[in-house]
Amino acid sequence: MDTLVTSLTRLEPVRVAHAAEMLVLLSDPRIYEYLDRHPPASQQELEDRYRRYETTFSPDGTERWLNWIIFPHERSACAGFMQASVNADGTGDFGYILGPAYWGRGLAFDAASAVIRVLHDDFEVTALYATADRRNERSIRLLNRLSFQRIIRNEYPHGEAPESDDVFRLNLP
Ligand SMILES: CC(C)(COP(=O)(O)OP(=O)(O)OC[C@H]1O[C@@H](n2cnc3c(N)ncnc32)[C@H](O)[C@@H]1OP(=O)(O)O)[C@@H](O)C(=O)NCCC(=O)NCCS
Q1: May I ask the CATH class of domain 4-171?
Q2: What is the per-residue DSSP string for 90-112?
């Protein structure tokens, strides 16, 4: 996994050393308004998570787990992360979080576009899935801008999507 440089950001493969700064960013409750998850409980917990992510494989070794920390060119501070899991059949799941101070500036679109290109070119992903709470307008606007299409829930191949979420797919032929 390489560092990616986009027009607005630098995307570094996640390392344990990112945990302290990311802990502060991820503690903002506004991030979780539409998410079924919570801020990390401690720096130790986030370091343990990032240590697993550094391997770039799921614990059972069957999936690639790819995580990049986003650094906008304009500031050296981290703005959030991009995340993808990739299955052996060429399908993947995609997720992203930015700190609220960085919303509304096109950073997520810029970073996501670069990650999607790498998923296709280097990891041979042919279909990428994302789920988003129906009320999460920012996330749904981003998915639309990235050309994801809303699909019916039972076409989602990776388990049960949360009841409150819509499911989206991007074909990468
Ligand atoms: C979802 C999330 C990443 C979207 O962030 P975002 O900054 O709105 O996304 P984008 O990068 O696409 O930026 C779009 C905005 O930047 C503006 N923008 C400015 N310059 C732009 C450019 N060059 N290109 C695209 N958009 C640009 C757009 O007009 C748009 O503004 P708007 O929100 O007022 O319509 C962010 O809201 C977030 O992290 N939320 C909390 C976590 C979350 O919900 N994650 C998703 C789980 S499904």
Answers
A1: alpha beta
A2: SEEEEEEEE-GGGTTSSHHHHHH
